[in-house]
Amino acid sequence: MKLFATVMVCVLFMLGFCRNQKTVIQDTSHFDHLSEFEKSVIVKKGTEAPFSGEYDNHYVAGLYHCKACMSPLFRSTDKFNSNCGWPSFDDEIEGAVTRQSDYSSGMVRTEIVCSNCGGHLGHVFEGEKFTEKKLRHCVNSVSLEFKPSID
Ligand SMILES: [Zn+2]
Hints:
By secondary structure, the protein is an alpha+beta fold. The chain has a domain at about 45-150: Peptide methionine sulfoxide reductase (Metal Binding Protein, Guanine Nucleotide Exchange Factor, Chain A, Beta Complex). Helices cover about 20% and strands about 30% of the residues. It is built from 2 helices and 9 strands, in the order H-H-E-E-E-E-E-E-E-E-E. The strands form 2 sheets. The protein has a 6-stranded antiparallel sheet with strand order 3-4-8-7-6-5, with no helix packed on it. It is elongated.
């Protein structure tokens, strides 16, 4: 009887676990309009080739939005030239970017994703001396959509 009770508890626990797993699945409709290349970076967490993105050497006043869901992520005033081959920002729009640990490629890095849709943006590096904030958000151009400010 004790064994039966233990098994039942395990079964109920597993059923609950499976149910919880299902509720974790995100709304992916933000990604439907993306091209295959955009999905390879934004959804599958890929990386565009360095010095290839349209915003690498792009210095115009405005805001950089998430390509998938159009949430504003970075200001042009926080963009700087790190010469790393990808757009670099030493700050983010408050709450727009979420950090998470990334153990892929045999390295320990901090991935950054859009806080609204979870789309992959790039990585953030701390302690470098490019700017006073010692922060470099290294972002794929293809994850961004720029909108110039209207003066
Ligand atoms: Zn987004």
